[in-house]
Known about the structure:
single chain; mainly beta; Factor Xa Inhibitor; eight-stranded antiparallel sheet; extended; Phgtail_TP901_1; Phage tail protein
Amino acid sequence: MAETELKVKVSSYLGVKKIVRIFDLSTGNVLAIGGQKEHTLNRTADTIDVSTKTGGIQNMAEIMAKMGVTDWKPKEYNDYKEYIQGQKEWSVDVSGALPASDAAYDILEAAYENGTPVGVSELDLGRMKEKVGIAIPTELSEEAPIDDLAGYSLSLTGTGPQVSRTYVPTPPAGS
């Protein structure tokens, strides 16, 4: 009986599998921003205080019981703040080595100068997912240290929601 080789399975994956891309709306192409070294996708939401003197969560006992808390007793007054989620926002910060020539970077520079929004894709090849949305460039900085690569950092602030979808790779033409 042949033994099968046991392989280590790791639940995480490298950040290199996540890439920020820009939609070229004039051609329909999706272009990776050149020189990327790192990026951060930020998603935040406002909080709205709904605290009242007697408590705003009307089914607190039911929720506590569902979580296995059986000895919770309501008070005559509420001494804890309570919140609901308000409006959401997203942004992405990207930094990397300044590309000598890059179509996506050129699109971002033009959008920054003209104040126009761009289509943005955060491609996650580790989970085969993609988040797409519309954003405005709010920072586009370049640095040129004497002892390192020329670099850039940029911030794209989302306008409207980000849509998540499954990523299905398209085979190269002619294959």
